[in-house]
Specification:
This protein is mainly α. It is built from three helices and no strands.
Length: 153
């Protein structure tokens, strides 16, 4: 054998280069084919939501469908039911409620704008004590509200 002859080395390099080029070409063709099939799957997802790999919400509503109207009514619970009876004494409850209303009216300089001495005490004596406390608290709250000193019970 003649070791000084460079021809065998060139042929080996050429064969390796051609082999690598064919492998690269095969890889490119495979990747192109795989990408095309994914595009076809994605296109099918837009037309058929069952074939999609993502959740697509159905936001359409049948226009002939009539929904029942919602009722926005709130019923007030009586004071002595589930919420329990007012734990404050009738006079104290009336005074606090009257003072708060008086402060609001005094701040706006509108006497008796929110004045309301109605109460849920069923006993006539307790109801009268509530009204007395409300009147006293309202007068004090109105005066404090006009001076800007609110909620000084």
């Amino acid at each position: 054998m003649n070791y000084n002859n460079p021809k065998p080395q060139r042929s080996t390099r050429t064969i390796l280069f051609v082999a690598l080029a064919l492998i690269a070409l095969a890889g490119i063709i495979y990747m192109k084919y795989a990408t095309d099939s994914r595009k076809a799957d994605a296109t099918a997802a837009y037309t058929d939501s069952a074939a999609a790999h993502i959740a697509i919400p159905d936001t359409t509503v049948d226009p002939t469908l009539r929904l029942a109207p919602e009722v926005d009514s709130v019923t007030a619970m009586p004071a002595d039911t589930l919420l329990g009876k007012d734990k404050r004494s009738p006079f104290e409850a009336g005074y606090e409620d009257g003072y708060a209303a008086g402060c609001d009216d005094g701040a706006t300089h509108q006497e008796r704008a929110t004045y309301d001495e109605t109460n849920n005490f069923r006993n006539p004596r307790e109801s009268r004590l509530y009204v007395d406390g409300y009147r006293e608290g309202y007068a004090k709250g109105f005066a404090d509200g006009q001076e800007g000193k609110q909620f000084n019970i």
